[in-house]
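lol so apparently i was supposed to do this last week
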Amino acid sequence: MSDDTALSRLRQLEAASAKIPVRDALAQPGRPGVSSIYIHIPFCSHKCHYCDFYSFVDSRDRQRAFTSRLIRELASLAPLAGPVQTIFVGGGTPSLLKAELWQELLASLQETYDLSPFLKGDGEFTVECNPESVSEELLGVLKSGGVNRISMGAQSFNPEHLKTLERLHNPASVPVAVELVRNAGIDRVSVDLIYAIPGQSLQDLEHDLRHALAMPIEHLSCYELTYEPNTAMTKRLGMGEFVRTPEELEIEMFELVGAMATQAGFERYEVSNYAKPGCECRHNLAYWKQDEWIAAGPSASAHIGGHRYKNVPRLESYLTGDDEGFAMIVDHEPPDPVRLVQEKLMTGLRLREGLDVDSLLENLNAANARRVRETATEFENLGQLERTEGRWKLTPSGVLLADGIAGSLLSVIA
Amino acid sequence: MNIRNFSIIAHIDHGKSTLADRLLQATKAVSDREAKAQLLDSMDLERERGITIKASAVTVMHEHNGERYMLNFIDTPGHVDFGYEVSRALKACEGALLIVDAAQGVEAQTVVNAYLAIEQDLEIIPVLNKIDLPGARPDEIAMEVEQVLGFAAEDCVLCSAKSGVGIPELLDEICERFPGPRQAQTPKTRALIFDAVYDDYRGVIVYCRVFDGRLKVGDKIRMMGLGRTFTITELGKYTPKPQKVKEVGTGETCYLVASIKTLGDVRVGDTITIDHDPAEEALSGYEPPRQMVFCDFYPATNSDKKGNDFEALREAMEKLSLNDASFTFQTVHSEALGFGYRCGFLGLLHMDIIQERLEREGDVEIVQTAPTVSYKVEVRGKEGATEEIEVHNPADLPDMGSIIAIKEPIAKVEVMVPKEYIGDVMKLALDRRGIFTGQTFVSDARDMLTFEIPLAELIYDFYDKLKGLTAGYGTMDYEINEYRTDRLVKVDVLINGDPVEALAVIVHKEKSEQRGRQLLVRLKKQIPRHQFEIPLQCAIGGKIIARETIKGFRKNVTAKCYGGDVTRKRKLLEKQKKGKERMKTIGTVNIPQEAFMAVLDVGDE
Ligand SMILES: Nc1nc2c(ncn2[C@@H]2O[C@H](COP(=O)(O)OP(=O)(O)OP(=O)(O)O)[C@@H](O)[C@H]2O)c(=O)[nH]1
Ligand code: SF4
Ligand SMILES: [Mg+2]
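anyway here it is w/ guanosine-5'-triphosphate bound
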């Protein structure tokens, strides 16, 4: 696509606003209020080479305008919400948002949403942070605004590998930042790691894991490096600057992560996520179980009343919004029960708890349900899938083949 | 008026069609401006490939020694596969121009076509063409003609169909040396059908040669063999533009239109007579062309049931069969490939051309299975009786236990080669289970070798190999002369333990292991990795003779999957599903259609 047509396509897509799915969701009788909110803060201090999130370095100081717009959007979405159980602020780098803007944002959330579950200690409010942009001041603001969980982007503790990823922070800043979080009275911390970085050995990964697990954390996300299209990393790979980690080593790495996390008292509850018992990320689980959530901020994806859509991934357009404060949206998919089954297969099989077979298949017609069952049996016979207590779960060898299994199951649905 | 009926015959590319152009021009049938190369090759495919596929008959007028001559001539195809077109054309003629490339010399089809003409008792004028070429060696080649074919070297006419040199002299020779048509033997009308083509507007156009009596517009005619009657609505000649006439007399050739709907209503070789005053005995006709090579065509796009893709193929097949009555087809169903057609062809080039015409003219995409030949299989029938059945699809082979013998077609192959390559060609032929039967001196530089080679061994890539081994100089022709019993076995291909009929092949016992291995190696390249290991096996009876394994994926999982990703990821998986639609599923294995072509490539390396 040439830039011109890309732009005109974008304009066309922007013509739709979130008002349409939101109105539709509100009109659905007897629906409970949405209990999860995702908020996207698009600012970063530097663009990492593997990153395909909507994020950029803000050279024009638009934080103020952004925050006002965000607050307005959240207000317009508020009628959808019930008592809020989980909030997740991701990005970008939310810790780059100035403390005073955070204060405004948090105050407006308190005002417009029912955060009563938090008072009962029943809420989860996560903010993603970069180790070099957390300060005592910011953490104080977050804490008093109800934030009780921080997700810290560590990625690696090896400066060379961080450099390969073009991720600019000093690895020594991570434990310092975690300690700051603890001292601020925020009692749950998650750390993100990336493995299979070009040039990384199994020993290197072991070193990273040891560092991560030595910190006082309850949650670990450990992702294999993914070469997303249109990222610098993928271009560099294509130019031959480095080679991909061989598949066999990737497998060993995956197994090492599992072994070390288990030893440290963590359990794998999703392909790439590990937690101490009871410390799973409830917000992410809501995604993976296809629950509903409200989304605010550019590029944020929502799932409400069976609708899926994404806010326009462009700050300029986002700042405009429509008269009622709704964002312009793209990739809108109206409700579709069959699609929902497919999505459940894709994300649900990745979970330790697996999928409840009967409640999954009751949304399909008999022929489709039969084909899915038959296909599942093939994977059961291969020892990649098992059925226990009415649930399909991947076996240890099946976890590594999750995409293929989900793909096969959903592709037999006519 | 004087009439001369003759055909132009030659080895492929020796210049028949170009010479026909010059004859049209020299007789003013076409103006110099109108003359484009190979004017009679009217099909797109003929023009693109530079070869003649269908014979075409034209009529021109020529003045010689103050007398008018009507020249009816037929340009014929040179390629082996279309040999039947040549023999049909020859039946309608008294003479033949045997064209020989003055640089290349006598080639395999020169010999075969010359003998066809000799058998028909035709007068033959050898013509050495392309004398303008720097490499032309007319004297030497004239000696070859004398040596191999037995025509006196000094009787050869020299010309260049390119520059026109020698063409007036050739026209003189045609008028003087070819005899006129024979006298009528009966007052009743008898005309021999030597070709028929289908035209979208006028139905079937019949080409015939009137041997006795005459044909007029309005005549009610009867096909003596098929017994059907029609009324002539148009008679004419191609000059080469179609020119209507009211009437044609003894000795002439013409085309005829009579509201004939399909080619099935006409049989080439049949005799036309007048319905109310019929001749007693038909003219001697032709043997219908024999299909020697078989393969299946399936629609390339998938449809679970007998759906639109198959319909499109069916339409295309039926339409093409109107134009080419020499290929046969019948519906087949394969577990792996769905509904399709089993087709019979005259040879490999014919198969190729039919496939291309279907895809092009019918706008369908085709998956083609490996070509096979037709076997005669002796089986123990009920109560101990022996029966012979014809099998041209390995899948149709009865249980090995009930088979007494499998007979395969044996081709008599003539190969013309420069002497330095004789050793290589011998080795190739013997490798293909050939039996060497003779060697004939052609010239100081070349010999003609004859072999008996099973057709099944020829149809893969024998011709390509021959060309490769002889720097392009070797030429060949073949003719099926008998069926012979050999130790032939059916090799089954099992994918993940399931036999796949569409991949089975019949091969010689001694070559079965080697062929099996090659086949599996090719299959392995075509079938994508799955979630599990896939064994590929070749088996005879229940005995495994070769095996390969496609390793299973060990890892196929996205690292990260968060809310917004779901849509994108689902779309990715859906794309995979689209890809899978172009595959056939056998058991739990998805096999791309290309894999079914893997058997096609079984050569020897
Ligand atoms: N130099 C030269 N080239 C010629 C002459 N006659 C034909 N050619 C070339 O030889 C090639 C084959 O000529 P065609 O007339 O198509 O041969 P053909 O015998 O009809 O071939 P098929 O119909 O395929 O058997 C063409 O490239 C012609 O231009 C000639 O007298 N001199
Ligand atoms: S900090 Fe996160 S969002 Fe920002 S560029 Fe790096 S990976 Fe992307
Ligand atoms: Mg020709």
